[in-house]
Amino acid sequence: MITVATWNVNSIRVREKLVIKWLKENSVDALAIQEIKVEEELYPYSSFSSIGYSCSVHGQKAYNGVATCTRLKPMEVLKGWPDGEEDEKRIITVRFKEFSLINVYVPRGGEKGTERHAYKIYFLTKLKLFLEENFSPEDSVIVAGDFNVALEDKDVYDPMIWKGRPGFMEEEREAMKELLSFGLYDLFREKNPQRVQFTWWDIETGAFTRNRGLRIDYIFATKPLLERCTECDIDVEARRKKGNVLPSDHAPVYAKFEL
Q1: Is the pTM of this model over 0.85?
Q2: Staple 201 to which of 25, 78, 213, 222, CB 3.0 to 4.6 Å?
């Protein structure tokens, strides 16, 4: 059994102890982390190595950044896009013997007509092109991360309030569906067809206590891995404040596979 998880930690230096504690309490073989907000040379590698994880990091100061930490042996690591185009430190691909894990932090975007909105759509489009040029739907591929898009009405606490806002624009949802047309499956929805559960709650408005959230973090996988997936769920408890540790605004999503 192999467990893969994704978690936007909103600064690894702020949440370092929280993430390490979570990994020690959960049997996770590979964790895709987003929004690490730190340069590669300042990443807390030793904290992870002390509990048996090696980390592949693609980061920068104060913004964005992704890291994949794993107990498995990586065969190949690709930071950014293969063509060298600037990716704002938003994508890292790690190939293992059993599968490939593409860890992404999709831009939040902006209002329709803005450059950030256009870049978000472009990023999702380029991600599908990357898949088409480097993988097949018959390969064992996982694409996991913070996509900043809620796919369905039940992935939003109030679709009428969010309609037309970044994260729930029709163009964004269509771009996500186009990405999935490569041959990817939303594992949480496959395993929980009707459940309403979120992965992000705004900290500033105290949205977690009222469960006013969005499901914007996903583990997508190709059919060979869908067929071997036994469970996919959201660890909502990891989002709950405990003691003096301020949680991320996101909860981790995990999936288990018979590999």
Answers
A1: yes
A2: 213
